Every structure is written in structure tokens, then in C-alpha cells.
Amino acid sequence: MNVYLVTLGCPKNEVDSAGMVAMLRRAGYVLMEEAEEAQALIVNTCGFIAPAREESLRVVGELARRKRPGQVLVVAGCMAGRYGAAFRSVPGVDALLPTERWAEIAALLGRLVSGAPPAPETLPPGAGLSAISGASAYLKIAEGCSAHCTFCTIPQIKGPYRSFPRTELLAEARTLREQGVKEIILVAQNTTFYGRDRGESDGLPDLVEAILQAVPDLPWLRLMYTFPGHISPRLIEVMAAYPQVCPYLDIPLQHAHPSVLRRMGRPDNVEEVRALLHSLRERIPEIVLRTTFIVGYPGETEEEFRALRSFVEEEAFERVGVFPYYREEGTPAARLPNPVPPEVAERRRDLLLRLQQRIARRWGRRQVEKRVEVLVEGVGDGGLMVGRSRWDAPQVDGLVLARGQARIGEIVPVRIMAASTYDLWGEVETTPIRYSEGEGMPTADAQPRSGRECSGTSRPSRSTSKTSPRQMTRRPSRAAAQ
Question: Which of 55, 137, 392, 419 is positioned for an S-S bond with 181, CB 3.0–4.6 A?
Fold first, then answer.
């Protein structure tokens, strides 16, 4: 029996979709690339903010309209739980499967589709922990969130924070490496909260070290979705000591004025945040910092917005996503007075993005003539390759585009020759990057070293098939504000 699956939203959703695929394949289903070829259609939705819900409704509506007799349509994921009522009125939707019940997908299809294979009695090993894309993989280390950000619905959708067992994560990391994965990206709603739900005070550094000891030949390990109040001195030291850890950190800060941060339910000591950023740059001089900000939060004044602009200019983040505030029913923020008009929020977003573009261009120009490592994610017939550096996460950051021979999945040296606002351009060099003493890959026992050779810039399409040069253009950033 054939299945068609669409995944919307963040990397955590991609991991859930990979778990569903593993479950369905174990049952005997075949995954199809076209909806017309499948008996069952599944949409794994995102319900984080209004635009994500609108996209989910649009995709489900399109599939429902195209549905032929005998097909079933299942709406799964975040929106299926909290916002399930929005789909009950959509003709053609046969069932809802909330995000916490993704493992029931085979049993659900068994009830909906005549002649469907029986559901497996157990989950496949690693199902729900990882999702592979090319030579990279997301490894989800926890589910849920126990923070109290006043604008966010994630705790209502996902429940409280639950760290996954370390032994299972290490086993999955070994499996990913055996399958040829060269970059593991740790994700959760807050990776730096790992272990705190079960009494550990600082579990993420220990997990990072354990992963690197379990897979000492892993080239890249990347950390996403960190929380400023939980980034410990020990985590910074581990990042600096192990050369496999990419010199990159994703820290959604959301704002930089204490009053706005208090209204958001976020840490409001901006000077502590500045000290943290200083510590990261001092200990890891080549680090690239990504963050996200919300503008137009209820009550945000021009003075508070100017403070945010000044903060962004002074701290010179290499990667920034900016989002207008979206009112979410059922959150404390929805009850706040003094809403900011949408046109004012959009103007502030545009001003902040223009400032960030100037900062990004300056950073890009400083990379020209550098020799960087690039993970190849696409190749063109004309000798153009596209990939990412250690400074760039999939989907949200820039690309490195280079002339020269390379194969998808390789890590190759590229000499940077030019830079645009978001991307770097260069030439593939034939001599592999060699590391001096104290740099590069660690020894087989994954002991920490003191230094590291860093890489380039930019973000690629995540396709693993051959791509023509004109197709290898940069997609708009979809940086997650979560």
C-alpha cells in the first residue's frame, strides 16, 4: 500500500515525520513522491504561529480538493491537536493525529483503509529521534517545553519538557554515522535544558561529549535552539575544546529591552546577555551567532525598538531572523494592552532586516580569501557546486557556491573569492585542508583539542539529486522563532 507524506514546519516536525515513515515502512507501506500514486495522504502540520497555520490549512485544502475516490487524508502534527477544529470543517479530511500520537499512524491507517497492513507492535529502533537529509541529520534530544514565554503556544501543544534517554541518543548517533551522516544537528525546543527535567543541572555539555566519544570520526556536530539563561561556562568550554562542534550557536533572544523581555516572560537582564555573547566570542573567536527577534510586541514603544536596533548593531550578529508579533489565543500575551498596529510592526521588521543586511555584508567581505570547509549538498552540470560551511545551518542560513569538481556528501576545501549579503562564492581547491597541531579532527578517542580551522558561509538547497546551476539559487530564510 502506498503513502504520500508532506512535512511542514521546523526540524522537530521532520524528525516526527521520519518516525512515521519508519513505522509505516515496517508495516509494509511504500512512500510515494506524488499524491496521485498513494492510497493514504498525510500532512504533518505546524501550528506555531498564524502564517504556519495558514500554510497548513492551504496544503491540506489543496490535497482534499485533489483527493480521488478511495484515498484517505490524515492531518497530523501540532495543528491537528490544538487547532483540530479548523480541519473538521474541511471536506475530505478523514482523521486527525495530534503530534504526541504520531507513532499511532499505522494503526490509524489500518482503521481507515480497507486491506491496510497490520500495524507493527513495536517502534523501529530510533524512530522519532532523527531525520536524515543528505549527509546531515537532525537528532531530537527532547520533546516539549517547560518555559513560560507569554507569546508561545508550544507548551500547550507539546506538553512539558521531556529529555530522551542518553543511551538511546548515543545509539542513534552511532547509527547515523554508520549510514554515512557527516553532520549531526541537535534540536529540541530548548537543547540547553537537556537533563534538567530529571535533576541534571547542566546535561547538554555531557551529552555533547558523550556523542563525540561515541562517534569520534563525526566531522560536524551543530547545536540549535539554545536558551541564553541555560548556556553554561562548561558548554562554552566543550564547544571550544572539541573541533567537531561547529563554531556556531543558535540563541533566540526575542528582544533586547528589559521591559519588553519582562512582558515576554523571558530573561530580562540584557547586560548578562551581553556578557554571555562576549564570553562566546572571546573563547571561540571564529564563532557565528544566530538569533531571532520579535518586533511589534504588545506595548513596544519607539524607544524600546530603538534599544533593540542599537543592540543588534552593537553585537553584530552574523545571522538574524526577524518576525512581527502574532497574537495567539490562549496565551498571556494575547491579553496584553496596547497592541502595535501591523503596519508599524512590519516597518520595524524591515528596518531591523536592513540593518542586519549591512552587518551580514560586512561579515561576508571579511571571509574573502579564506579557505573553508564546505559540505556539498548539490552539484550542477556546469561545474557549479552548492553547499554549507560550518557557519551555516540547513534551511535558515546561507550557501557556499563554488566552481570545481565535488560529489554530494563530501566535505571539500573552498577558497572564497566573493560574498553577497547571505552567500559566499568561491572555487573548490584540490588540496585537502590540512590541520596544524591542535587543529582539526580529534584523535580516535575524541579527546578535546585547543584550536580549530573554521569554514565558510552560506546555505544550500537540501536536495541530494543533481541540480542545474540556475536551480541553485538561495531560498528565502525561514528562520524559526521558536
Answer: 137
Inter-residue contact 345 to 296 (CB < 8 Å): yes
CATH number for the domain harbouring residue 412: 2.40.50.140
What pLDDT does 89 receive?
Answer: 83
Across 41-55, 250-264, 344-358, 445-459, least confident range? 445-459
pLDDT in tens, 90-133: 899 999 999 999 999 999 999 999 888 999 988 888 899 999 99
Per the confidence metrics, is the pTM higher than 0.90? no
On whether residue 122 sits in a domain, the answer given is: no
Q: What's the structural domain count of the chain?
A: 3
- Distance in angstroms (rounded) separating the CA atoms of residues 20 and 25: 9
Domain extent for 140: 130-362
The pLDDT confidence band at residue 432, using thresholds 50, 70 and 90, is: low
Q: Is the CB of residue 456 less than 8 Å from the CB of residue 395?
A: no
User: Can you tell me which residue has the cell 566570542?
Assistant: 281
